Amino acid sequence: MNSSKQSADRFCEAFMDDSREPKKSLLARLFWILVAVWLLLGLVSSFVLVIGLNFIPSTEWAAATHHLRMILGLVSAPLLVWVVWKGGKKAKASEVKRIFVVSCSPFFGYFLGGNILFIWPLLLPLIAGHEVALPFTVLRATDIGVKYCHSPVILADMPFFADGVCHVPESIRTSLSPGSRIVVRGWGTRLGLYAHDLSLAD
Fold this sequence. Notes:
6-stranded antiparallel β-sheet; 6 helices; 8 strands
């Protein structure tokens, strides 16, 4: 009788363990999907900003999301460190390589996380965009620029990599000084635009 009872107990325990396993596995898969989507959104936004498509958010959007972008960056920095460390372990990378990559990943993670919120103003013009003109303040107009953004006009109080109008003619740049009020035109919405020209505000 006792042996039958013990067998039944072991069966129940085994059954309960098996029932928990799929739940754990499902939660793990859901977690990794969320992490992948999180990093993918940040990667897409960062890529668009870096390759020089001349996207500039509105000053109102930049101000309204400033603190939230910082928080998302601070969340993403350790998250990417953990993902890179776990991935390197599974890939059986050498400890030296893992330490090097992990040491760089907090900065990259912060950059990705801080750019996640850009995905909405970046994609919205593709759905509901039109020709818009947004006001900005000039920070400086003397930078040489980089490969994808020559002769930029740098705007005040704007996020990194989304703070300049690229390829501005020198005839216009020489007329600008720090504090100048300008109007930037392009295809977009009130949240931001893909700039194609600028002029002094009236």
